[in-house]
Task: inverse folding
């Protein structure tokens, strides 16, 4: 007897309308339990793991890897009609939902009241299994033990699945799909026997993949490569276009002597409070921006066109632009203005590592109020950053390099960088934008001002 339930793609973000199937963790025939991760999806904001809402056996996968699916569309069918392990239930009466006697019925009678042909046997009391609660995307926890039953490895279980599934990260799976390589036939050299990017490239017969023909979506394109615009990349493109053509951008530039900041940075790195933390010049730039926001609150606001209001935020969720493998993302540090300098340093490091690894959650990416982007790590002096949608300002921090500088009337070699501040001219006029930029620059020229102004 089967009882199929279809799991529909849920809205795991704020107003999510669709998502891409990145990688299935199960195949038809696999046994799954409540809260076991069954699939990775890529939304407009992040890669999210979806758990199973039921115990059961996978009947069908209703969406393929790489497919874009609308919210509310079924993606997997699970047979929830009982457990395949009948040894524990051979002497236990069937559940009341199937054919067990109703409460109060006489022994030997079914719910219909008709006598049963067999003589009822005394039953041993069985320990009650803790009730489970279906949980999606981390909301709540299940009541049962966290011990997961082992995956089937017996030949009978293997026969239920079409083929063994190779271990590989989603980007590696995409590369293999692009090159027409079957992962199941590769011997992985990564941790736990996982297939790496190098393994795929070797299987393709060339370590410089982009110099040869590639396959995209089943079509060979010769010397060109076509990358589907999906998930985060599509969202990023739409958001940047919307921001550029909605908010009138103005960008101002300021070259700053940061020699004293670099000296302070070296001293801070030796303090015990920063042990195990990567302390970079971006830390001082972020602290200076937070201090400037406190002095000029209007820079930390948003434009509400429907209500015809400017919304000034009296908290700072500091966005950090991160170049992740899937594209540019801007996770933010919640209430960054309330953190100590060591706390800000740890949050910067954790958020950057999480973002680059593709583990940023929708919550990490939502609710930012002002952003800083470190273009200096790419060897760039300056740029004209586009506002993160819904925000009023973004600060770009350029590379620090030795520069001829006049100090007390004498030419000297100093460490300098260029700051670029883009702002929404509907809210911020030139005077306010210049004041904010000048304040950030002054604090980086003399970091003692950070203490004096906060």
Result:
């Amino acid at each position: 007897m089967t009882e199929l339930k279809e799991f529909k793609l849920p809205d795991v973000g704020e107003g999510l309308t669709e998502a891409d199937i990145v990688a299935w963790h199960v195949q038809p025939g696999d046994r799954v339990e409540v809260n076991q991760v069954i699939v990775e999806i890529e939304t407009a904001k992040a890669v999210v793991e979806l758990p199973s809402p039921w115990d059961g056996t996978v009947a069908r996968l209703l969406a393929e890897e790489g497919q874009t699916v609308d919210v509310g569309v079924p993606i997997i069918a699970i047979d929830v009609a009982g457990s395949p392990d009948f040894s524990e239930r051979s002497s236990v009466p069937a559940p009341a939902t199937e054919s067990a006697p109703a409460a109060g019925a006489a022994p030997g009678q079914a719910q219909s009241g008709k006598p049963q042909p067999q003589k009822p046997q005394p039953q041993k009391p069985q320990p009650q299994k803790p009730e489970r609660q279906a949980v999606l995307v981390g909301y709540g926890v299940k009541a049962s033990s966290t011990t997961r039953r082992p995956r089937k490895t017996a030949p009978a279980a293997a026969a239920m699945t079409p083929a063994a599934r190779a271990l590989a990260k989603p980007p590696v799976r995409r590369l293999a799909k692009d090159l027409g390589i079957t992962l199941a036939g590769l011997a992985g050299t990564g941790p736990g026997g996982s297939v790496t990017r190098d393994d795929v490239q070797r299987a393709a017969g060339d370590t410089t993949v982009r110099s040869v023909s590639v396959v995209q979506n089943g079509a060979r394109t010769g010397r060109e490569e076509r990358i589907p615009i999906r998930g985060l990349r599509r969202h990023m493109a739409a958001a940047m276009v919307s921001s550029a053509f909605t908010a009138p951008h103005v960008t101002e530039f300021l070259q700053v002597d940061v020699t004293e900041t670099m000296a302070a940075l070296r001293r801070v790195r030796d303090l015990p409070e920063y042990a195990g933390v990567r302390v970079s010049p971006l830390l001082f730039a972020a602290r200076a921006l937070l201090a400037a926001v406190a002095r000029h609150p209007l820079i930390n606001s948003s434009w509400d066109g429907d209500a015809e209001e400017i919304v000034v935020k009296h908290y700072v969720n500091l966005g950090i632009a991160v170049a992740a493998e899937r594209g540019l993302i801007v996770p933010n540090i919640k209430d960054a203005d309330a953190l100590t300098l060591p706390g800000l340093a740890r949050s910067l490091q954790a958020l950057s590592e999480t973002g680059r690894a593709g583990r940023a959650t929708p919550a990490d990416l939502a609710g930012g109020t002002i952003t800083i982007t470190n273009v200096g790590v790419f060897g760039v002096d300056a740029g004209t950053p586009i506002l993160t949608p819904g925000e009023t300002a973004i600060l770009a921090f350029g590379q620090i390099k030795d520069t001829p500088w006049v100090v007390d009337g004498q030419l000297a070699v100093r460490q300098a960088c260029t700051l670029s501040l883009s702002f929404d001219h509907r809210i911020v006029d030139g005077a306010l934008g210049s004041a904010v930029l000048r304040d950030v620059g002054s604090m980086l020229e003399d970091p003692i001002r950070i203490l004096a102004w906060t």
